[in-house]
Amino acid sequence: MWTQKRTPTNLWGSLSIGFNEPNALAVIANDGSGDNHIFHLYVREKDPKAELWDGARSGTQAAMDVFNADEVGALCYKMMEAP
User: Fold this and answer.
1) What is the pLDDT of residues 18-40, one digit of tens each?
2) Residue 52 in contact with residue 61, Cβ under 8 Å?
3) Residue 7: which region, alpha, beta or left (left: phi > 0; alpha: psi -120 to 50)?
4) Residue 51: in which H helix or E strand, if any?
5) Statement: 17-80 belongs to CATH 3.40.47.10
6) Residue 80 burial (C-beta neighbours within 10 Å; 0-12, 13-18, 19+)
7) Is the confidence at residue 74, as pLDDT, over 50?
8) Is the dihedral of CA 47, 52, 57, 62 positive or negative?
9) pTM here?
10) For the residues of 14-32, what is the DSSP string, one character each?
11) What's the whole-number average pLDDT of the chain?
12) Where are the domains of the chain?
């Protein structure tokens, strides 16, 4: 039996940096000084009401503390909507 398989939407994020949450954005760029890179991680902020339905979120503080991001930012749903 043939079945169509779909690549998970969070596959690249979980493979490259280990951050396994939907609707997150990682930017890794060379800072211009050789082999040094800067790591920006934009995630959904912690929200107790939303976490009841969608599951736990790491939030911006964990993005810095656990994932060692150089800069972090909070994404909101309005930023992710297409025009």
Assistant:
1) 777 778 888 888 888 888 888 88
2) no
3) beta
4) helix 48-54
5) no
6) exposed
7) yes
8) positive
9) 0.66
10) HHHT----SS-EEEEEE-S
11) 76
12) 17-80
